[in-house]
TrEMBL record:
Residues 82-207 form the GST C-terminal domain. GO terms for molecular function: transferase activity. The gene is gst. Keywords: Transferase. This is Glutathione S-transferase GST-4.5. It comes from Litoreibacter roseus. Pfam families: GST_C, GST_N_3.
Length: 207
């Protein structure tokens, strides 16, 4: 049995799929079964999820990204031997998991958070989520001014984790990333990398 990544196109499962391609780790990538069949694999019913060779199901994007790097002996993507860089990679991954990713939920599925599904209430919920998205982009802009990577002078998993969420910005912000030029430059550059291009083609999506 080989590693099996369960993914859905355009979701945050894009990040570990890119990383598997980048480090050339043998794997299978497949769409998960629907409904209860997938919940039998991952009770949360969410992607990404990765089945290891022994059958264990690893979940949560940050954990999967870290596992892939350690399996491939690519600790440079985790910050290398620099303790501060390692901590910063963990910090930015936590930011994406705990702050930036959840900011999109009220924008995409406002009805999940409100018992009143009137148009005015749902529009207000979307607007509140969008303010959080913009706040996250402001943080990324501050970090990326004058540099091409979130941590250190080379790519880490934090950079690849950012990709699906920065792509979502184009779906919810009319000006896309134009208001955040450093973020826009970062995103445009990373989307030209071979592993990103190849994986987006598999997902049948564009930047």
């Amino acid at each position: 049995m080989t590693l099996t990544l369960f993914y859905r196109p355009g979701t945050c499962s894009l990040a570990p799929h890119i990383l598997l391609t980048l480090v050339d780790l043998p794997h299978e990538a497949t769409h998960p079964p629907r409904g209860d069949a997938f919940k039998a694999i991952n009770p949360a019913g969410a992607v990404p999820a990765m089945r290891l060779e022994d059958g264990y199901i690893l979940t949560q994007c940050g954990a999967i990204l870290q596992y892939i790097c350690q399996r491939a002996e690519r600790t440079d993507l985790l910050g290398g031997d620099d303790l501060r860089a390692q901590a910063e990679v963990a910090q930015w991954c936590s930011f994406f998991t705990g702050d930036f990713h959840p900011a999109f939920y009220p924008v995409f599925v406002p009805q999940r958070y409100m018992s009143d599904h009137s148009e005015a209430v749902l529009d207000g919920t979307k607007a509140a989520g969008l303010r959080l998205v913009r706040a996250g982009l402001d943080q990324l802009e501050t970090r990326l001014i004058g540099q091409d990577h979130l941590v250190s002078a080379s790519r880490t998993i934090a950079d690849y984790y950012a990709i699906p969420m920065l792509r979502w910005v184009g779906l919810v912000v009319e000006t896309k990333l134009a208001e955040w030029p450093a973020v826009e430059s970062f995103y445009q550059k990373i989307c030209t990398e071979a592993s990103v291009v190849q994986t987006m083609e598999i997902h049948k999506i564009t930047p």
